[in-house]
Write a structure and sequence with these properties.
Keywords: Cell membrane, Disulfide bond, Glycoprotein, GPI-anchor, Lipoprotein, Membrane, Signal
Helix content: 40-55%
Number of helices: 6
Pfam family, one: LTP_2
Number of domains: 1
Low-confidence stretches: 12-23, 104-123
Main location: membrane
Strand content: 5-15%
Largest sheet: 3 strands, antiparallel
Mean pLDDT: 64
Structural class: mainly alpha
Distance between the termini: 17 Å
Signal peptide: 1-22
InterPro entries: Bifun_inhib/LTP/seed_sf, Bifunc_inhib/LTP/seed_store, LTSS
Strand order of the largest sheet: 1-2-3
Shape: globular
Number of strands: 3
Length: 123
């Protein structure tokens, strides 16, 4: 989950040259998050965390596509640790093993929030 968030955050930091319209749509929802990347003392606000929850719950294929694009990882200056920290501080944990070897139409994700509420869905 955190690696996917990192990639989405990368997209929001600048260039979207390798991102399709659908990927840009899910990435655009995370615009409020970059201020927290290099600031380890500031806890992400709901303006960052809520869109992350929404994208993970409803647009996992988009995030998986962003994650699987190797050019995104080298195009932006954000570390895995920073993305992991933002996700963790938002109270979001996700099992993204579904990204490997599954068709887009059968993605499944379970999102656990700080309230430990579970939601699952099929896309």
């Amino acid at each position: 989950m955190a690696k996917l968030l990192m990639v989405v955050i990368y997209v929001m930091l600048g260039t979207m040259t390798t991102v399709t319209d659908g990927q840009a749509t899910c990435a655009q929802k995370l615009v409020p998050c970059p201020p927290y990347l290099n600031n380890s003392t500031a806890k992400p606000q709901n303006s960052c965390c809520n869109p992350i929850r929404e994208v993970v719950a409803n647009e996992l294929p988009c995030l998986c596509n962003l994650y699987k694009d190797p050019t995104l990882l080298t195009s932006f200056n954000v570390t895995v640790a920073e993305a992991l920290r933002i996700s963790r501080e938002c109270g979001i944990t996700t099992d993204l093993s579904a990204c490997s070897g599954m068709e887009k139409s059968s993605w499944r994700v379970v999102v656990r929030t700080e309230a430990n509420v579970e939601r699952s869905g099929h896309r």
